[in-house]
């Protein structure tokens, strides 16, 4: 009963999930690459043994991706592997943490080695990009495909970006276009199966803002990643920081492809409520804006100021026409708006 | 699509999985108890922030427990919660690591708050016993009940018990009776639903040998926990240590209730191949036997020497009658057996 998948589990792990370990080092030895990554003992024992960097905080997060709940089961295995790790790396990005190690728990309805090979390619492709080492895994046989990843990163003491640091008067900003992933999901369900389609790609292969988070963590007052949708995640930031917010609809960055696909109104709705964007939502003091923008532009990204943190609780929104939208009070101007950042 | 369970997720976590956090500390504050446990920032942000102990290694392991694969779906919620954490704590025990933190990913077919309450009681009951803090979680809605836990412990540099340390001439020993869990599983399927029945209890509520592992980690040469069954796990130890083993059947500790339930032959078979015991299998130099035994007895446990590590690969077994058994070569005496430990 306990070993539904164990006959092949060790071999599957050895074959697909020890790709960064030289074959000669797959028993008790640690490869030079692992040692540089702080891996004292990797896969194959009861636990991985890791060497945390002295004086830094360990950042840990877990996320489950379920087939046909968090991703379409018929997406490519590469995309599924990429996406499962990306949504976890985004949690490290949201704290400004440096990726270190992750463990993978995989539940498979069947052992399809072609699929596993593709999945591992997607996973390792992103893992190498962000220098995070797979140090442990568990494979079980179950009715539905489920991927649970626990990521570990580290961050300087007092260097972490948190949800409780936003202060009235701070600017609210995001690191990239919103709504595209939601547009991609809709396109997928409408039959668009080209994974290189810009919106589909935004949904299936999000690029977690890891380098951005690490580079600006000391310059912002608070933040998180946008996974549930801008309004929902802004709500989390406001609740934890005991503040409110005023959003400027016209300043929310939208991809041209999204506007072309959905029209302006639905594109804005996707940006507000769609989710799965994995951009960072940041609060920062106005005098930090230029410096943060410079850092992000040096990384090939951008800073889009979309509103202000207010002392009064609740989220209000203004459009260029003065109309409000769902969940929002219509008003003409954000309170305490002295013209900083993006005018609508 | 990404938020199948999110409407209630935050509230469920707050209600059931923040039990060690005072209500006043459930936003950005860390309770004194959390601070003592090295928790800098607990649940509610994108990551938990943790303070590893300087100079110690971090031990990390992940295990998934699936309904009707790893536990019977109709067991009590308390037992399911206990067992899911126990099998993970056992991996820390197997390394000699001190439990620190864990994260929980829970996939639920339905939100049954009565069940969640019981599950959390079982989980927290064992967590408090072993002083491990729940620092993060993810709840999703899926077709089958699945519990994935990632545990974190720490251990002194060079203090970890590993699978590659067994040396020829070492004694092989276990920390308690084997086969009982398998007997309990069989009793369960035969209709025995009393969770206090000694065999059923051994299966549903294993007691991970955490204190034992921590106390003897510097005194043994190698080891692991017995989850797949004595022969399978001994095989892992031998493979990683590049050694063989000779087992003495008569020395393998069996619970009286197991022998009474299955008879002597099937009880031995359950001990060899049944799995789910979560006792430790240890290798130790003969001159350490008395000291290890004393430590384990001081903890209320015992040391049962069941064989010897051999230079020759392969596992051989002897019975008191000289008969071999499946997977074993029959022989009269372990090689290099100078009478140390348990004679058959």
In short:
Chain A is an alpha+beta fold and 344 residues long. Chain A is 33% helix and 23% strand.
Rg result of chain A: 21 Å
Write the H/E string of chain A, N to C. HHEEEHEHEEEHHHEHEHHEHEE
- Give the helix level of chain A as a range of percent: 25-40%
Strand content of chain A: 15-25%
Global shape of chain A: globular
What's the helix count of chain A?
11
For the termini of chain A, the CA-CA separation is 61 Å
Largest sheet of chain A: 6 strands, mixed
Annotation, overall tally of beta strands of chain A:
12
What's the CATH topology name of the largest domain in chain A? 60s Ribosomal Protein L30, Chain: A
Low-pLDDT segments, ≥5 res of chain A: 1-7, 324-332, 337-344
Structural class of chain A: alpha+beta
Assembly type: homodimer
Average of per-residue pLDDT values of chain A: 90
In which order are the strands of the major sheet of chain A placed? 8-10-7-11-9-12
| CATH architecture descriptor of the largest domain in chain A | 2-Layer Sandwich
- Main interface: chain pair and counts: A-B, 71 and 71 residues
Family (chains A, B): Belongs to the thiamine-monophosphate kinase family.
Keywords (chains A, B): ATP-binding, Kinase, Magnesium, Metal-binding, Nucleotide-binding, Thiamine biosynthesis, Transferase
Protein name (chains A, B): Thiamine-monophosphate kinase
InterPro entries (chains A, B): PurM-like_C_dom, PurM-like_C_sf, PurM-like_N, PurM-like_N_sf, ThiL-like
Key words describing this protein structure:
12 strands, 23% strand, alpha+beta, Phosphoribosyl-aminoimidazole Synthetase, Chain A, domain 2, 344 residues, disordered C terminus, 60s Ribosomal Protein L30, Chain: A, homodimer
């Amino acid at each position: 009963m306990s070993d539904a998948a164990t006959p092949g589990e060790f071999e599957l792990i050895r074959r697909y999930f020890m790709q960064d370990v030289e074959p000669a080092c797959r028993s008790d030895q640690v490869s030079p690459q692992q040692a540089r990554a702080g891996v004292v003992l990797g896969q194959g024992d009861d636990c991985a043994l890791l060497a945390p960097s002295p004086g830094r905080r360990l950042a840990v997060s877990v996320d489950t991706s379920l087939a046909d709940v968090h991703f379409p089961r018929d997406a490519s295995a590469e995309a599924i592997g990429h996406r499962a790790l990306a949504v976890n790396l985004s949690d490290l990005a949201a704290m400004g943490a440096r990726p270190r190690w992750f463990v993978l728990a995989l539940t498979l309805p069947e052992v399809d080695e072609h699929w596993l090979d593709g999945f591992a390619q997607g996973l390792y492709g992103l893992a190498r990009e962000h220098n995070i080492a797979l140090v442990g895994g568990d494979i079980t046989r179950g009715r539905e495909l489920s991927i649970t990843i626990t990521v570990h990163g580290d961050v300087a003491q007092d260097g972490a970006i948190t949800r409780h640091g936003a202060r009235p008067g701070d600017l609210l900003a995001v690191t990239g276009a919103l709504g595209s992933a939601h547009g991609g999901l809709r396109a997928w369900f409408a039959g668009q199966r080209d994974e290189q389609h810009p919106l589909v790609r935004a949904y299936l292969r999000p690029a977690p803002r890891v380098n951005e988070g690490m580079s600006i963590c000391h310059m912002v007052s608070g933040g998180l990643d946008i996974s549930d949708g801008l309004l929902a995640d802004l709500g989390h930031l406001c609740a934890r920081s005991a503040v409110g917010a005023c959003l400027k609809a016209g300043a929310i960055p939208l991809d041209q492809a999204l506007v072309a696909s959905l029209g302006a109104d639905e594109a804005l709705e996707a940006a507000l409520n769609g989710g799965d964007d994995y951009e960072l939502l940041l609060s920062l003091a106005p005098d930090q804006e230029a410096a943060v923008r410079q850092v992000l532009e040096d990384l090939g990204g951008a800073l889009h100021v979309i509103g202000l943190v207010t002392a009064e609780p609740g989220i209000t929104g203004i459009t260029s026409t003065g109309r409000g939208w769902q969940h929002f009070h219509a008003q003409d101007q954000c309170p305490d708006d002295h013209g900083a950042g993006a005018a609508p």
